[in-house]
Model the fold of this input.
Amino acid sequence: MTLMPSPAPQRSLQVALGERSYPIHIGPGMLGDATLLSPYLAGSQVMIVTNETVAPRYLARCRQGLPEGLEVEELVLPDGEATKTLESVSRIWDALLAAGFNRRCTLIALGGGVIGDMVGFAAACYQRGVAFIQVPTTLLSQVDSSVGGKTGVNHSRGKNMIGAFWQPQAVLIDTDTLLTLPPRELSAGLAEVIKYGLIRDAGFLGWLEENMSALRDLDAAALTQAIERSCTIKAEIVAEDETEQGVRALLNLGHTFGHAIEAHQGYGNWLHGEAVGAGMLMAVELSQRLGWLSAPEVARIAAVIEAAGLPLSAPADMSAEDFLALMRLDKKNIDSRLRLILLAALGDARVHDETPPELLAELLTAFPRR
Done:
C-alpha cells in the first residue's frame, strides 16, 4: 500500500528565548515551500548537510525550497549513530572552508538527530558561530533533538559528551517525511513522545494510550497532534532553563539508563529511542521501589511503552556493574552524586540524587534482560 500525504493543516509555535527565539513549523509539504526557509537565511551562502539515506529522498526537494540566486553547497555524510563523531564534524568544517563560506553562511541540517546534532555543533564552532536551520526527518528528531539547541557528538566513553548549546534559526517539521520512516525508527521516536506525557502531562499520556495504533499507522492528524504537543512541552521547558541548570534535566527521563545501554552495546546497535524506552521503564520501576508509583501505574506505563513497539528489557550481556560504571559518566551528575530523573507521580518528574545505592543495585540486578 502506498501512503499518501495528508492535507493536515500546518501548525506553528515559538521557542521563547528572547533575541534567540525561533519558530517551529509543523505540517506536510514544507520541504518544497520556498516561503518557509528564506526568512531564516543569514546571507547568500547555504550548505545543506544530510546523509546517504535521506539524500535520495529529500535533498532535491529541500533545495527546491530555497530561493534563487544563492550559493548552495551539499554535503552527504554516512548514516548511523556510529558516525556521530568529531571526524564527521570535521568533514563539515572542511567543506565550508573549501567553499569559502563566511560568517553569514547558513547550514541546513536535513536528517535525523545525528545529522541535526552534528550540523548544530559545526555551526556553533565555525568562525565562532554561524546560523543553522533544523529540518528533521525522523519522529525522534522532530519531537526532541531538533528543538532546544543541544548539539554535539559522542565519545567512546559516553553519549553526547562533546558539544555546545547553539539554537537554530528555525525548525521546519515536514510530516510527510515520516511516510518513508521504517517502523523501528518510528517506534524509537515514540519513546520521546511518551516521555513528555510522563514528565509533564498525564492527560497527554492518556491520549497516547488511546491513539498509539493511529500513530503507528502514520495517521497524519494524530502525528501532527503528537508532534505539536511534544514540541510545545519541550519549548516551555527550554524557555525556563535553556542550558540545563535545573528543570531541563527532566527531559532526560530514562536517558541515564538508556545512554548506558547505547554506550555498552555500541552506538547504533540499539536505537536511541529503544534504549530510552527501556531506560524509562527502569526509572519508573525505581520510582515504584521508592514508594512514589503504584504497581498499576507501572503496569500502565509498561503497556504504553510496549504498544509503541519498544523493548521492556535490557541487553542480556549487560550486568548491573556495567550499568553503574557507565551511569557514573552521566553529564547530570554533580560531585560524583548520581542524579536520576524519576517520577513522583504520572506527569510529575523530579531530579533525584539520593537514591540508596542498594535500591539501585537491586533494580539493576532484577530488571529483565533479553
About this structure: The radius of gyration is 20 Å.
